C-alpha cells in the first residue's frame, strides 16, 4: 500500500522554515569573507579601470591582507546582510514550502493525462524554483554590488541605500540583470527535485495527499 505523505502541520511548517533559514544564514555568514575576496580578485581588472583599486592583487592571500589592512575586519562581511536576507526565504522555501506547495498543486495540476508525468512534475518544480529565485534576485544584485565596493569606491551606507541608488541611477530593471541565466540554471535543480520525487514513488510508494492522516 502506498504511503500517503500528509500535508505538514503549521508547527512543522514553521520549524522547517526556521531551520532552513537559520542554516542558510549560518552557512552564508561563515563563507562571506571568502566569497567577497573571490569577487574582488575576479573583478580586479574592472576595478582598476574604474579607479577603485590602485594595484592588482598578487593572490587571494594578498587580497585578504590588503582588504583587512585598508578597510578593517568587518569589511570582509560587506553585503552579508543582503545575502542572508536573500537566502533565508530561499532556503526556507526549499525546506518548508516544497512539500507543502506540491501537496497543494499536484492534485490540481498533475491530474488526468499529466498524472505520474515526470515532465509535468519537472515543470511544477521549475516553477517553484523560478518563483523563489525571482523573488530574491534583487537582494542578490544588491549583495554583489556591496561586495564589489572597495577602498575609496565605497559609497553605499547600507543595503537599503544601495538598492535606492541602483534604482535611481539604473532603473528597477537593473535589479534583475542576469536573472535569465539564473532561471536557466534552475533547470538542473528542478530536474534533481523531480527525480527525487519519482524515486520516492518508485522505491517507497510515497504519494501526496491533502489529508492529515
Features:
213 residues; mainly alpha; two-stranded parallel sheet; 7 helices; 2 strands; 70% helix; 3% strand; elongated; disordered C terminus; transmembrane helix; mitochondrion; repeat; membrane; MCP_dom_sf
Structural write-up:
It catalyses: ADP(in) + ATP(out) = ADP(out) + ATP(in). Strands 1-2 form a two-stranded parallel sheet. Helix 1 (10-42) packs across helix 4. It has helices at residues 10-42, 44-49, 60-71, 80-109, 118-148, 159-170, 179-204; strands at 3-5, 206-208. It has a domain at 11-78. It is mostly helical. The radius of gyration is 21 Å and the shape is elongated. The two termini are 14 Å apart.
Mean pLDDT: 76
Q: Strand fraction band? A: under 5%
- The helix tally amounts to 7
Rg on CA atoms, Å: 21 Å
Largest sheet, described in full?
Answer: 2 strands, parallel
Low-confidence stretches: 1-5, 208-213
Give the structural class. mainly alpha
Helix content: over 70%
How far apart the termini lie comes to 14 Å
Number of strands: 2
Protein name: ADP/ATP translocase
Solcar repeats: 11-104, 120-202
GO cellular component, one term: mitochondrial inner membrane
Catalytic activity: ADP(in) + ATP(out) = ADP(out) + ATP(in)
Amino acid at each position: 500500500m502506498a504511503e500517503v505523505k500528509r500535508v505538514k502541520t503549521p508547527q512543522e511548517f514553521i520549524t522547517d522554515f526556521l531551520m532552513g533559514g537559520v542554516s542558510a544564514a549560518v552557512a552564508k555568514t561563515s563563507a562571506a569573507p571568502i566569497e567577497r575576496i573571490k569577487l574582488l580578485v575576479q573583478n580586479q581588472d574592472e576595478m582598476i579601470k574604474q579607479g577603485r583599486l590602485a594595484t592588482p592583487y598578487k593572490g587571494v592571500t594578498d587580497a585578504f591582507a590588503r582588504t583587512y589592512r585598508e578597510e578593517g575586519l568587518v569589511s570582509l562581511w560587506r553585503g552579508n546582510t543582503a545575502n542572508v536576507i536573500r537566502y533565508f526565504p530561499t532556503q526556507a522555501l526549499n525546506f518548508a514550502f516544497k512539500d507543502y506547495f506540491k501537496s497543494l498543486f499536484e492534485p490540481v495540476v498533475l491530474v488526468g493525462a499529466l498524472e505520474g508525468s515526470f515532465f509535468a512534475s519537472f515543470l511544477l518544480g521549475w516553477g517553484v524554483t523560478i518563483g523563489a529565485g525571482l523573488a530574491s534576485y534583487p537582494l542578490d544584485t544588491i549583495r554583489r554590488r556591496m561586495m564589489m565596493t572597495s577602498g575609496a569606491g565605497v559609497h553605499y551606507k547600507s543595503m537599503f541605500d544601495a538598492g535606492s541608488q541602483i534604482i535611481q541611477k539604473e532603473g528597477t530593471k537593473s535589479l534583475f540583470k542576469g536573472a535569465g541565466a539564473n532561471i536557466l540554471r534552475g533547470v538542473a535543480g528542478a530536474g534533481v527535485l523531480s527525480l527525487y520525487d519519482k524515486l520516492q514513488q518508485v522505491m517507497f510508494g510515497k504519494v501526496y495527499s491533502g489529508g492529515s492522516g
